[in-house]
Write a structure and sequence with these properties.
- With about 550 residues, the chain is α/β, with parallel strands linked by helices.
- The chain is built from twelve helices and 20 strands.
- The strands form five sheets. Strands 2, 3, 4, 6, 7, 8, 16 and 18 form an eight-stranded mixed β-sheet that branches. A six-stranded mixed β-sheet has the order 11-12-10-15-13-14, covered by helices on one side. It has a two-stranded antiparallel ribbon with strand order 1-5.
- β2 and β3 (about 145-150) form a beta hairpin.
- α1 packs across α4 (about 205-220) and α2 crosses α4 (about 205-220).
- The structure holds zinc ion.
- Zinc ion binds next to loops.
- The site of zinc ion has 5 residues, from loops.
């Protein structure tokens, strides 16, 4: 074992260990076990092969950007087998320790609430201090609870590999605690699964990285390439205090575009069309919460106008819901490349396959087919539809204070996830265009996103659109997913190597395709660190069911 010194900012002498059962956190007395709801997971040992491949990648095999520039459809990267002996990572003994570590991590209720912002002043953050009872590498505490580790490589000329995860979990609704099969922060291991909030999202990611690092250190491994680990603590609330500070810190320390590649939580592996595909998200949709406010004169309910403020707000919501954004995709959308791969390696039949073929052509015919393709994909519904449209969900509404008084201010907040081929500005413009006729019909002044669209003299009220919660986020730049990309090759080759050496491996290939994140991760705070951002967890979807994973 090659012990790694703690930084001077950490108390020396506490140099070890990931949390174990001993580090359990006392739960409030009202949490008792009860059957039903479960969130469970058993670690996939193969995660360790994936990480160790990345760590073991030798300097002599420095990544180069060589290779053909014209690619055949869905060209695959070669398998990258780690040098050195990593079989210890797969041993029963290692498995037991890793189970213990993940179980211990789940016991610490690192809940992140939307209204948490003051790291020093909010008592609820203190639990993250309990979670920090592991310290092996040089660590910097960023904004108190953010963790930035450096495992220094022997070749400083190589750009570091950055691995990220988040420490926080979605809060457990206290009234549901008795419905859980095991208490949400029990970290109970039943011989197959580890139960509890965070056992999947994202303590699996965090503990798998830490376990692999820990075991490699114990085996005496020394990396050639520096490895940077970054763990935010409010991802579930947008990473506004955790990853934001970590991103700034890392950019200051290492510089802009300083990382070879960033791998954070994200999508996994799926069996579809008769083939297993690994689908790291190379892009992420944008985001915008919009507040709709209708201000109207007050008055007594006994002499109401035809539409109160609430009625007008309802009309506005109805108009927006009846005018959804049209499906649209360019060839930059990761789903376009993914579909090409599905058609090439899987068994896609019918119209989509034919349209795909036409869409890969140039000129008007190709563009027309691409348009049709977006419509066909949207027709599949669910995530597919969300991948080619800007989605809209009315999530908050308020208005009125008294049953005999006309509401003077009625408000709603609409959540949007912006198409990767669109933008915040395009969405704002579309909302204005959709609502303008309504404001004219009902004689409302109209203000939108800081602009005065119309200001009527005898207006019956004012409709205002404004960004809510400081939420605007453009769609992420799409990371490369072709074999000209050294980073993609490293990620692909590592995943393929892990797949090919898994327990009970057969001769089936793992096909790497780019995916699109329809939600957001902490990576949105790390855009400046690298152009190669992948959101990926080595986990088979077929072995996961809803919130339960094994
Ligand atoms: Zn997560």
């Amino acid at each position: 074992m090659a012990p790694i010194r703690l930084s001077e900012k950490e108390p020396v002498g506490n140099d070890l260990a990931l949390p174990t059962h001993d580090s359990s956190y006392e739960l409030p007395p009202n949490r008792r076990p009860s059957p039903k709801k479960l969130i469970a997971i058993c670690l996939a040992g193969s995660l360790f092969g994936f990480l160790s491949t990345q760590l073991l990648f030798p300097s002599s095999s420095r990544l180069s950007a060589g290779g053909a520039t014209t690619q055949s459809v869905c060209q695959q990267s070669p398998i990258l087998t780690p040098r050195g002996n990593v079989t210890d990572l797969y041993s029963e003994k290692a498995k037991e320790r890793i189970i213990d570590w993940l179980s211990g991590a789940v016991k610490v209720p690192t809940e992140a609430y939307d209204d948490m912002a003051d790291v020093e002043g909010d008592e609820r953050f203190k639990v993250f201090g309990v979670f920090h009872k592991y310290k092996t590498l040089s660590v910097e505490k960023v904004n108190t609870y953010g963790l930035a580790y450096e495992w220094t490589g022997s070749d400083p000329s190589l750009k570091p590999l950055m691995l990220a995860a988040h420490q926080d979990v979605v809060p457990v609704e206290r009234s549901t605690v008795l419905d859980w099969t095991y208490p949400p922060f029990s970290g109970h291991y039943d011989g197959t699964n580890i139960w509890g909030r965070g056992s999947s999202d994202d303590k699996t990611g965090l503990i798998s990285i830490m376990s692999a690092v820990e075991l490699l250190i114990e085996g005496g491994f020394k990396p050639t390439r520096t490895v940077v680990l970054a763990y935010g603590f409010d991802e579930e609330c947008g990473g506004k205090v955790g990853a934001l500070a970590l991103g700034k810190y890392l950019e200051e320390k290492y510089g802009r575009d300083s990382m070879l590649m960033l791998v954070d939580e994200g999508s996994g592996m799926t069996e579809r069309y008769g083939q297993t595909f690994a689908e790291p998200s190379t892009g992420e949709k944008g985001y915008l919460d919009v507040e709709l406010s209708v201000a109207t004169p007050g008055g007594h309910s006994s002499v109401p106008p035809p539409h109160t403020g609430i009625g007008l707000l309802a009309l506005a919501i109805n108009t927006l819901e009846n005018n959804p954004m049209s499906p649209y995709m360019t060839r930059k959308n990761p789903l376009y490349s993914a579909m090409q791969c599905y058609a090439h390696y899987g068994h896609i039949d019918g119209e989509i396959k034919d349209t795909l073929k036409l869409a890969s052509g140039e000129g008007k015919r190709g563009e027309k087919a691409l348009k049709k393709l977006a419509g066909l994909i949207a027709g599949l519904g669910g995530q597919e539809r969300a991948s080619v449209t800007t989605t809209r969900a009315v999530d908050l509404v308020k208005g009125g204070v008294k049953v005999n008084a006309l509401p003077e201010l009625s408000q709603a907040v609409i959540n949007h996830r912006i198409n990767t081929d669109s933008s915040v500005a395009e969405l704002q413009e579309e909302m204005i265009n959709v609502l303008q006729p309504l404001t004219e019909e009902y004689e409302l002044s109209f203000h939108a996103f800081g602009k005065e669209i119309s200001d009527l003299k005898d207006a019956r009220g004012t409709l205002t659109l404004a960004e809510a919660f400081d939420s605007a986020l453009e769609p992420a730049r799409v990371s490369p997913s072709d074999t000209d990309s050294p980073a993609w090759n490293l990620l692909s080759g590592s995943a393929k190597a892990t797949w090919s050496t898994r327990k009970g491996a057969d001769h089936t290939d793992l096909i790497m395709v780019p995916g699109l994140g329809i939600g957001n991760t902490d990576t949105k705070r790390y855009w400046n660190l690298t152009r190669n951002i992948y959101r990926f967890g080595y986990l088979l979807a077929s072995e996961a069911g809803g919130n339960s994973y094994r």
